[in-house]
From TrEMBL:
SUPFAM superfamilies: C-type lectin-like
Gene3D superfamilies per record: Mannose-Binding Protein A, subunit A
Tree of life domain: Eukaryota
Annotated ranges, domain C-type lectin: 137-250
Name under which the protein is recorded: C-type lectin
Pfam families referenced in this protein's UniProt entry, alphabetically: Lectin_C
Organism: Elysia marginata
């Protein structure tokens, strides 16, 4: 388990509490554990996704726990809910949607807080929050593997070796990996460019400055075609592919597009 996780537990299921102002909450009637949240209005948080509502919901619901129960009993496939503790308004959600989808609407203040179900990242992955507020789905595999084996294992899970494009992402990886791990970096020697395996995009100079040791890869020895997070450097580093390391898989945030 990752030490940076801060979860809200309800009936053995992990829920994430969010509000539309980015406020953080202490314990409440649902749990004595710490909670975390991010701002629905923060452009670094959950990007452009909006809740997809199942219906207009119910009024007079006593608390968030009751809202969860009603949502589950009425819609077994529900992925979360909106709850306003002042008005008792409870609105079940199927999942999240793209703002371009027909009828897509952001959270209105009168709808209250957003609660996301434990299926957010699927069972084997953990939902993590970057210092920027962005959410990611990660799985840390501690057994050593070759880069090919690691990539194949991640792919079998519907994921890819972790992409580390920003300093907040690097900060998170630092808290997870206490030993060297593979990351999703590849040098295309024939083209002379580095790419991220997750999306195939070219690594930019800014990304190198933000996340790489000494400002970028150096291809020492002329055979460093893969990427690692090295805790000695506390940064991303290019390395020979002829190694075996633990690794981190990343799964794209789930989106329900209509």
């Amino acid at each position: 388990m990752f030490s940076t996780k801060r979860f809200l537990y309800l009936f053995g299921c992990v829920l994430i509490r969010i509000d539309d102002k980015g406020n953080r909450f202490g314990s409440n009637a649902l749990t004595a554990s710490n909670q975390w949240c991010y701002s629905q209005d923060n452009q670094n948080s959950y990007r452009s996704l909006v809740p997809k509502r199942l219906n207009s919901g119910w009024t007079g619901v006593s608390d968030a726990q009751q809202c969860a129960i009603w949502s589950l009993m009425t819609f077994p496939i529900f992925g979360g809910f909106l709850y306003n503790s002042a008005s008792g308004l409870c609105s079940p959600l199927l999942w999240f949607d793209l703002p371009s989808a027909q009828g897509a609407q952001p959270v209105h203040p009168e709808e209250g807080d957003v609660y996301v179900s434990c299926g957010f990242c699927d069972g084997e992955f953990d939902v993590m929050e970057l210092s920027s507020g962005e959410l990611v789905c990660l799985k840390h595999v501690t057994s050593a593997a070759t880069i090919e084996q690691a990539s194949s294992t991640c792919a079998a899970l519907g994921a890819y070796l972790v992409t580390v494009k920003t300093f907040p992402k690097l900060e998170l990886i630092r808290t997870i990996a206490k030993q060297t791990v593979w990351v999703g970096l590849k040098y295309l020697r024939s083209q002379g460019i580095y790419i991220w395996l997750g999306d195939g995009q070219t690594v930019t100079n800014q990304q190198m400055m933000d996340t790489f040791f000494d400002g970028g890869p150096n291809d020492a020895g002329g055979n460093e075609d893969c990427g690692e997070f090295n805790p000695y450097f506390n940064s991303i580093n290019d390395i020979s592919c002829d190694q075996s390391y633990p690794y981190i898989c990343e799964k794209a945030l789930p989106v329900l597009a209509c």
